[in-house]
Amino acid sequence: YSSAASDVYKRQVLRFFGYFKEAVVESKLENYRLRKMILMYYLEDHTVMIIEPREVNSGVPQGNFLKRRQLLREDGSGLAMLPFDFRIGQEVSILGKQIRLYDCDEFTREFFEV
Q: Environment class of residue 40 by beta-carbon count within 10 Å: exposed (0-12), middle (13-18) or buried (19+)?
């Protein structure tokens, strides 16, 4: 992106909603649990931050899942992840987790329609 394009995207964030399955070995009542995530993609510098919304009495550490940073594709190409790497209804591999994206906010929806 050029400098002018970067000014257009300053402070604009694509927000996706997703989850991943986590195996549960210490319980006979459940085999896995779903961990919900909010993935934010910052257009100005192509960085990603992932948070896990807090749930009361979940017994699982929550909050910041991934601090804001640039992510590389896990295909071995060494290329940074870009907005088109995130698609609703598909999984994205981040730090060895397969996060299924199931929704996004209105701004993100409009961004991809243009």
A: middle
Q: What is the dihedral of CA 25, 26, 27, 28, to 10 degrees?
A: 70
Phi/psi of residue 39, each to 5°? -105, 125
Strand partners, 32: 23
CA trace torsion 22, 83, 13, 50 (10° rounding): 20
Nearest-angstrom CA–CA distance, 32 and 28 = 10
Question: With bands split at pLDDT 50, 70 and 90, how would you rate the model's confidence at 37?
Answer: very high
3-state secondary structure of 111: helix
Say if CB 20 and CB 100 are below 8 A apart: yes
What would the pLDDT profile of 74-93 be if each residue is shown by its tens digit? 888 989 999 999 999 999 99
Query: Whole-model pTM?
Result: 0.81
